[in-house]
Write a structure and sequence with these properties.
By secondary structure, this protein is an alpha/beta fold. The protein contains 7 helices and 5 strands. It has a single domain, classed as SGNH hydrolase (Rossmann fold, 3-Layer(aba) Sandwich), CATH 3.40.50.1110. A 5-stranded parallel sheet has the order 2-1-3-4-5, sandwiched between helices. Helix 4 links the parallel strand 3 and strand 4. The longest helix is centred in the middle third of the chain and has 20 residues. The two termini are 13 Å apart.
């Protein structure tokens, strides 16, 4: 059995495109990309879905809470779910929020910290060190109702794939540019509809199969 941890934010959680900030809905389990991948991979794989809306790479969110920090959460999940064979990390969209004032290279470096920490928390106690797939999220859109929350986020998001690819090369881990397969919904400029989840799930499935051998 090959165990795969999917570590991400609302787009791993399966949040539907939001027509207004007070409306929060989630796609059904079978529609979300980790479940699409699990169905495609079949019985030899166990896929663990760990997506938290609002999750950042390494930042305590001063408004939404310190629990949004991916660097804090990942060691807990490693301990809970080990042994892990493969970890898929798709983060960075929430780091684009105006309040964090970081650009593509900072976000990519933050992802490097996550991978380095993951390796340490497995190596130190003698756990199996999993393979890693870094997935660069697709560029966002800036829709009117988001207001000042993501000013400048679109421009920064256009540089994410190249920056994360360079980090993946430095870390010697696998890389997938989700933006070559999918686009965000124009409804909120951030999230994916069910058809897009399926497309992304199939793309990540191919990368995971190659990694798992």
């Amino acid at each position: 059995m090959t165990t795969v941890l999917c570590f991400g934010d609302s787009n791993t959680h399966g949040t539907k495109p939001l027509p207004a900030p007070e409306m929060v809905e989630r796609h059904g389990r079978e529609s979300r990309w980790p479940a699409v991948m699990a169905a495609e991979l079949g019985a030899g794989f166990r896929v663990i879905e760990e997506g938290l809306p609002g999750r950042t790479t390494v930042h305590d969110d001063p408004i939404e809470g310190a629990h949004m920090n991916g660097l804090t959460a990942l060691p807990i999940l490693v301990g809970s779910h080990s042994p892990l064979d493969l970890v898929v990390i798709m983060l960075g969209t929430n780091d684009l929020k105006t309040r964090f004032s970081v650009g593509p290279s900072d976000i990519a470096t933050s992802l490097e910290r996550l991978v380095t920490m993951l390796r340490f928390y497995c190596t130190a106690p003698g756990r199996t060190v999993p393979k890693v797939l870094l997935v660069a999220p697709p560029p966002i859109q800036e829709v009117d109702w988001l207001g000042e929350k993501l000013i400048g986020g679109r421009a920064k998001s256009l540089g994410l794939a190249a920056a994360i690819r360079a980090s993946a090369e430095r870390l010697d881990v696998a890389f997938l540019d989700a933006g070559t397969h999918i686009e965000v919904s124009p409804i909120d400029g951030l999230h994916y509809d069910a058809a897009t989840h399926r497309t992304l799930g199939l793309a990540i499935t191919a990368a995971v199969r190659e990694l798992a051998g």
